[in-house]
Amino acid sequence: MSELLFKVETHKIMRTLNYLAASKLKVGLIVNFGKDFLEWKRLVL
Q1: How far apart are alpha carbons 20 and 33 in whole angstroms?
Q2: HEC secondary structure over the chain
Q3: Which of 6, 13, 21, 32 could disulfide-pair with 39, CB 3.0 to 4.6 Å?
């Protein structure tokens, strides 16, 4: 189960990095409101 969660997270990170590169932005956020607590990651190119 934890391997599946890691793969999903990796997929989200790769997608966000691709969006940043395509849009020529330098900073992106991945935010998950679906749990009892806020999960977030800040990505910088």
Answers
A1: 21
A2: CHHHHHHHHHHHHHHHHHHHHHHCCCEEEEEECCCCCCEEEEEEC
A3: 32
Contact 29, 19 (CB under 8 A): no
Give CA–CA dist 16/27, Å, rounded.
Answer: 10
pLDDT tens, N- to C-terminus, the chain (45 residues):
556 555 668 888 999 999 999 999 999 999 888 878 888 889 999
Say if residues 27 and 41 touch (Cβ distance below 8 Å): no
CB distance 26 to 44 below 8 Å: yes
Contact assessment for residue 7 and residue 14, using Cβ atoms and an 8 Å cutoff:
no
